[in-house]
């Protein structure tokens, strides 16, 4: 029943998500109310003015100016209301939390996986830029601190991808030569599945990543573990060379 209350959406996991969730629910409710009203008028007209067997041809109405004005203005009003709430939600979701975010992650999208640069050189608990590299054969892990704003800078090494975490109720295109960015504040711990939401080639379905929303202490500990493994410094696209999974020698792949 809880799933029905969210109109099919997953449980939200960010402070920005309710803006999209409320817009989604409101659009469904408005559509149902309008649909029931229109269907009601249609069925009422069909039964109220149905032709009688012994009746003649009914009087033909050429036009009705008030009615024509009404069914011209009402759709404009409906679209205008939806447009207003859409822009309001979009502005709040895309709004930057502040000029200097607490955490910054530079994301590289590349056929067909993701790499993450944690720009934590100003974080006294880490003091370095560390990274995690994903490949088609290895799903990368993205760690985020709960209740702290994170800025994502999205960079593509090749074609258009789309960075999507369903529980954040938000996705943003990753476009070659056009960096995009957005801020998000995760507010629910757990592990969520992220993915590419833009058909980008042969192994598009392999562009997955695990999102771990953890405490600040766990977040810092994970980054120090990456640094201890030598995964320091900022990766630049392309983040890796081998972009296709292992396969029989006679199988051809898109390169």
Widest sheet, order of strands: 3-2-1-5-8
Return the CATH class of the largest domain: Mainly Beta
Which percent range describes the beta-strand content? 15-25%
User: What number of structural domains do the residues give?
Assistant: 2
Radius of gyration: 26 Å
**Could you say what the CATH architecture of the largest domain is?**
Sandwich
Count of helical stretches: 4
What does the largest sheet look like? 5 strands, mixed
Instruction: Note the run of SSEs as H and E.
Output: HHHEEEEEEEEEEH
Principal-axis shape equals elongated
How do you describe this structure in short?
The protein is of the alpha+beta class and 255 residues long. It is 31% helix and 25% strand.
Overall description:
The protein is an alpha+beta fold and 255 residues long. The chain folds into two domains: 2-52 and 64-94, Helix Hairpins; 103-228, Immunoglobulin-like, CATH 2.60.40.420. Helix content is 31%, strand content 25%. It contains four helices and ten strands; from the N terminus they run αααββββββββββα. The protein has helices spanning 2-5, 17-48, 65-94, 216-228; strands at residues 103-110, 113-120, 128-133, 141-145, 150-156, 161-165, 170-174, 180-184, 190-196, 208-214. It has a five-stranded mixed sheet with strand order 3-2-1-5-8, with helices on one face. Strands 4-10-9-6-7 form a five-stranded mixed sheet, with helices on one face. Helix 2 (17-48) packs antiparallel against helix 3. The longest helix has 32 residues, at 17-48. It is elongated. Residues 241-255 have low confidence and may be disordered.
